[in-house]
Amino acid sequence: MTNDLATLMRQAQDDDPLLALHATTALRREIERLEAVQVRRARVAGLAWAQIANAIGVSKQAVHKKYGRR
User: Fold this and answer.
1) With contact defined as beta carbons under 8 Å apart, do 50 and 35 qualify?
2) What is the domain extent for residue 17?
3) Residue pair 31/54 in contact by the 8 Å Cβ criterion
4) Which of 16, 18, 27, 61 is at a distance of 20 to 30 A from 43, taking alpha carbons?
5) What total of structural domains would you count in the chain?
6) CA contacts within 13 A on the Cβ side of 21
7) Residues with Cβ < 8 Å from 19, sequence gap 6 or more?
8) Where does the pLDDT of residue 69 fall: very low under 50, low under 70, confident under 90, or very high at 90 and above?
9) What pLDDT, on the 0 to 100 scale, is given for residue 70?
10) What is the CA radius of gyration of the chain?
């Protein structure tokens, strides 16, 4: 399966439920990876955990627990 996001989006809407599930799982992994990269960039740029949490839509504690110990 390809990691091209456009292809994965199309496959996630496929009539074949197994193909759609595989694509949805691959999309979720890619989104998690991208979020981690953006959080890292935000921290390097000096943003506070509260600002990052607000942008993501979670509590400061949740974002710090997920990304703070890396």
Assistant:
1) no
2) 2-68
3) no
4) 27
5) 1
6) 3
7) 11
8) confident
9) 59
10) 15
